[in-house]
Specification:
Blueprint (H helix, E strand, L loop, with lengths): L4 H16 L29 H34 L3 E2 L2 E6 L2 E7 L4 H5 L6 E5 L2 E2 L3 H9 L6 E8 L2 E8 L1 E2 L7 H4 L15 E3 L13 E7 L6 E6 L2 E6 L8 E7 L7 E11 L5 E10 L2 E8 L4 E8 L2 E11 L8 E8 L2 E6 L3 E6 L7 E5 L5 E11 H4 L1
Antiparallel strand pairs: 1-8, 2-3, 3-4, 4-5, 4-6, 6-7, 9-23, 10-13, 11-12, 12-23, 13-22, 14-19, 14-23, 15-16, 15-22, 16-17, 17-18, 19-20, 20-21
Helix pairs in contact: 1-2
Length: about 375
């Protein structure tokens, strides 16, 4: 496979820096790393063990990537604020009968300059009545920065008209869903009904309409197809790409949940590099989700957090459990708040704790060239079970 020339050049540059420099100061390890810092920049630091060199190269790359990503996040917001500024009045308010009671007025804003006070009840902006967060947001954001405003308020039992001007929303790095909770989709709503699939009515050789295919890592596209099994039909992942960072995903179309339980029967059909299968919960994108997976060669059940494409076993998230017998096995994965529980065949259980992802989609997962079959798929929002 061809690698990006820039990436290859960067690796070579770091390799030369690590192996050819006459000396370099010790670099402090990351939290959880080995206690003795590596003396990078000297050939002796990595002599005889390429794994040490790989770890150091990745550590340096990760530092650069993290720093660049943080800077790009900030720059993206600043650029967007320049080309598409958001009108800003500069107040917080809560709904009361007939209007919005002002709970905060921020300095250097149109609200402050207009003379708004905490306790005022804002009735109208221009001709628009404001009696909810949504109507207040509409009255402000559907105007241009610099617009003159007439603000009708009740103060001490009397109606007043104040004059103000909209400014531009100041720089902000908080999550957009927190800043604009009134926007559609700002808050994920759990699916009301469980998702189930047994594939008996799906056409053989095709991807079921109830699933969306995705790929984590790289390599050949997944091939999720309906296949015949010993008791009817099942879903088979049939791509045999041997790439190690190759994670075919089949996502339940339209399903979203916070607290959720997923359950599936699975078995391995083939695979030389790997034989694995798993249940995905709280899926955001192909590089961010939780997965509970079983693996024939390793003989275990693990709970992984996949964050920015990096897969790590969560502390406590591993238990031994054999699945290398060619038989069907039942895998259940449950997410309740920060508690993640995976159970194999009702008897092998791993429990981990993590709050990196608290909501998202659900689906199925394989690795590398695993030809794995799945049947009797269930995803149930726990709120729906109460």
């Amino acid at each position: 496979m061809h690698r990006a020339p820039r990436a290859a050049s960067a690796v070579l540059a770091l390799l030369v820096a690590c192996q050819s420099a006459p000396s370099a100061p010790a670099l402090a390890p990351r939290s959880g790393a080995v206690s003795e810092p590596l003396q990078v920049g000297t050939p002796a630091a990595f002599a005889g063990d390429p794994a040490l060199l790989r770890r150091e190269l990745l550590r340096r790359f990760d530092q650069r990537i993290d720093a660049m990503a943080a800077q790009l996040h900030v720059e993206a917001r600043l650029v967007i604020d320049e080309v598409s500024p958001i009108p800003y009045l500069g107040l917080d308010a809560a709904p009361v009968p007939g209007g919005m009671r002002v709970t905060a007025v921020y300095g250097g804003t149109g609200a402050k300059d207009a003379g708004l006070r905490i306790g005022d009840v804002l009735l109208r902006i221009g001709d628009e009545k404001v009696d909810s967060h949504a109507t207040l947001a509409h009255a402000i954001r559907h105007r241009m920065p610099g617009s003159e405003l007439a603000l009708a308020v009740i103060r001490d039992g009397k109606e007043l008209e104040l004059r103000g001007k909209l400014g531009k929303r100041p720089e902000e790095d908080e999550d957009e869903a927190e800043q604009f909770p009134d926007l559609p989709g700002a808050k994920l709503v759990d699916s009301e009904s469980p998702f189930t699939a047994d594939f008996e009515r799906d056409a053989p050789g095709e991807t079921p309409a109830a699933f969306v295919s995705a790929l984590g890592g790289h390599g050949a596209p997944p091939r999720w197809i309906v296949a015949a099994d010993d008791a009817g039909r099942c879903l088979r992942q049939a791509s045999a790409d041997r790439a190690g960072i190759h994670f075919p995903l089949a996502l339940a179309r339209g399903f979203e949940a916070h607290d959720v339980v997923g359950k599936v029967r699975l078995r391995y059909v083939a695979g030389e590099v790997d034989r694995a299968g798993g249940v995905v919960l709280r899926y955001r994108d192909p590089g961010n989700y939780y997965v509970a997976r079983v693996n024939a060669a390793e003989g275990d059940l693990r709970i992984f957090r996949v964050a920015n494409g990096i897969r790590r076993t969560l502390p406590g998230g591993i238990v031994m459990g054999a699945t290398d017998d060619g038989a069907w096995h039942t895998l259940e994965f449950r997410a309740e708040g920060s508690v993640l529980t995976a159970t194999l065949d009702g008897k092998h259980t791993a429990v981990a704790y993590d709050s990196g992802f608290l909501q998202g989609g659900a689906g199925l997962w394989t690795k590398s060239d695993s030809i794995t079959e799945f049947d009797d798929v269930e995803f149930t929002p726990l709120a729906a079970k109460k």
